[in-house]
Each structure stands twice: as structure tokens, then as C-alpha cells.
Specification:
Keywords: Membrane, Transmembrane, Transmembrane helix
Protein name: Fatty acid desaturase
Radius of gyration: 18 Å
Number of strands: 0
Pfam families: FA_desaturase
Number of helices: 10
Shape: globular
Strand content: under 5%
Oligomer: single chain
Mean pLDDT: 90
GO molecular function: oxidoreductase activity, acting on paired donors, with oxidation of a pair of donors resulting in the reduction of molecular oxygen to two molecules of water
GO biological process, one term: lipid biosynthetic process
Amino acid sequence: MKSTKSLYKAVDPYGIIIAFMMIFIWFFSLYTLLIWDISYANPLVYLAILLQTHLYTGLFITAHDAMHGSVSKNRKWNTLIGWITSMLFAFNFYDRLLVKHHEHHRFVASDKDPDFHESGKFWPWYWSFIKKYTTLKQLILMTISLQLLRLIFPLDNLLLFWILPGILSTFQLFYFGTYVPHKDGHDHDNKHHSSSLEKNHIWAFLSCYFFGYHYEHHDAPGVPWWRLWKVKQ
């Protein structure tokens, strides 16, 4: 297996291209769905919600890669992509996320870890997670944006393909990227207090862009999501 350092060097020229592709695909998919004349009897509507949820998760994963400097070695470009993808994900502010995420890596599964909850129970932990990462400023910006966008697009489409997938993706990110890997944090006998998904690259991608390979991510945080499966190898 290649070293983490060599993997990082190998992916560097492509990181920013993949990041812009993620943003473009999300925008294209969203716009297409917002102008779609939907019928609730059409099963494709519900598949589209799942697709858009997965793309929303991809936006956040791209912002997460920027937090580890793995989108581009050019710091300005790396930070710009981090800001863009964070803001597209319900007006999250990149600088705030950056601080909290690195606290998570430094103090994993401890009382100083902003992503950890001692209860180990899904709903109290999820509620704590949401409260820490949602601000009044975000809610105001989302409300204003919804009111403006409904002047252009049908409200049903906005709720189904813009608002709902954003909410669902928080469950996807939380469940596969935080809860499952760290719910038994004190019991994991390893330096990262993390579990890892059994090797299954298709499921690892579909569930959370390979972040089910969570021990590997903590062990090689500079490896971007689209190369993380190689660390599992």
C-alpha cells in the first residue's frame, strides 16, 4: 500500500477538479429538480429526494476535505472551496466548522470533543449535534432564501429537493460519520477511539462517501474522500 504522504501528493492535482465537479453536479441536479413538473404518484420523485440528499452530503464532505487541506495545496483555493461548499450546505460558516472539526480530531471521544455525547444514544446525541452546528443566523438566511426562491420556483419543489434533502443529509452525516464510528468510543481499544466499516467499497461510498472507513480517516486525515478506500486496502 502507498504511504499516506504519497497518496496525498498523487491526488493533489485532481482535488480541486473533483470539488468543482461536486458543486456543479449538485447545482445542475437541484436546478433540474426545481423546474420539474412533479407528481407525487411518480416514484422517481422519491428517488430524486434520495439522490439530492446524497449530493448534499457530498457538499459537506468536500467542505470537510478542505478542513484537512486536501482539496488543494493552494491555501486560498482550498479555503475558498471550503467556504463555498459550507455555505451551500444550509449557510454553514466554514471558519466555525473548521475549529470544531479539528477539536474533534484532537479530543476524539472525550468531553472536549464537540461531536461526542456521553449517552451513546442516537436521539440525544443527534439533538446535541444539531444544536452545536446550527445557528440563528443560518435559520434566518435559510428563511430569507426560501422566500426569495419561491418567487421563482414552486414551493413544493423547494421543500422536496432543497429543504428536505438538506435535513436528511444531516442524518446521513451524523449516523455514518459520527454515531456509528464513535458510539462505543471508550470501548474501542485503538488510538482513535473509532470503529470502521468492514471493507465494502460500494456500500462505503453510498452510505457516506467512504467515511464509514472512519478509523482510516482519523489515521490519515489528509487523504481526500475519493482516495480513502485505498487506505482501507
